[in-house]
Design goal:
nine-stranded mixed beta barrel, 267 residues, 19% helix, alpha+beta, two-stranded antiparallel sheet, Lipocalin
Length: 267
């Protein structure tokens, strides 16, 4: 029950961004049906060089994404291949009041959580040599370089790591390394370490649907790589708005107080 209440609180607290969009502002270039509605099943748009254009505002499609956000293992056949101690770490993280969870403290959330978060809108801007992902949550961004460079030698780790991409036919294959250690893959606390390599395969199925296949290879946390798919849908006729998690935030102090009571530290 505590876990359900906690997740519900997250979704309610972030739902403001869902209703605070630019309204009734038609997105240019959107194919439409006779009644003026966006035609999400129209053909894939393409750039001048013939590649699929991934540009647009995207959100997770339907309820399966919510399940992935709560627990990635629900999408992995046979569950997650934990190394010794990693399942116990996830269990400890997932025990209420979960005050160490990054999203609880308004810290950045990882690439995987942003792919699976219901209501976590993101805007892809595709340019020659560079693909940008703008995230509504904490008004953050991610850069994916498609100019032929190689992954860098990591001198300083980062929340989103460092990403390069290349096209394989109509699929953009993105490799990312250099993650900051101690991240969460989901709200269940499944770990991502600084040894991880993340591979994403972006494929725009039609005008309104984007499929992302994610493979995680993290030898510190898991005995073998594992993969799962995320289905996303275009959100037309709207725009991103500023969403700063810490603005007017009042929950952390109460969660800390609850943790002290549980631990016997309350005066």
């Amino acid at each position: 029950m505590a876990r359900s209440v906690f997740v519900f609180a997250i979704l309610i607290s972030t739902s403001v961004s869902l209703f605070a969009q630019w309204l009734r502002h038609p997105t240019p270039g959107i194919p439409r049906t006779r009644d003026g509605k966006p035609n999400l099943s129209a053909p894939v748009p393409r750039t001048p060089d013939g590649k699929p254009d991934l540009s647009g505002i995207w959100n997770i499609q339907d309820n399966p994404g919510q399940t992935q956000f709560l627990d990635i293992a629900s999408s992995v056949q046979g569950g997650l291949p934990y190394r010794p101690g990693m399942a116990e770490l996830a269990k400890a993280r997932n025990t209420p009041p979960k005050t160490s969870e990054p999203i609880t403290r308004c810290l950045p959330i990882g690439i995987v959580e942003r792919h699976t978060w219901v209501g976590g809108l993101k805007k892809i801007v595709q340019n020659p040599g560079l693909l940008l992902i703008l995230n509504e949550y904490n008004t953050s961004f991610r850069q994916i370089f498609t100019d032929g460079r190689r992954l860098p030698t990591i001198d300083q780790t980062a929340w989103d790591g460092y990403s390069i991409g290349k096209w394989e036919g109509d699929t953009l294959v993105v490799e990312t390394t250099g993650f900051r250690d101690g991240q969460w893959l989901d709200t269940a606390g499944d770990p991502l370490t600084d040894a991880a390599k993340l591979t994403e395969r972006f494929r725009r199925v039609d005008f309104g649907h984007l499929q992302v296949e994610i493979t995680i290879d993290d030898p510190k946390a898991y005995t073998k790589p594992f993969s799962f798919k995320v289905n996303q849908v275009l959100v037309p006729d709207t725009e991103l708005l500023e969403f700063i998690c810490l603005e007017n935030e009042r929950d952390i102090q109460h969660m800390n107080a609850g943790a002290q009571k549980v631990g016997g530290g309350a005066k």
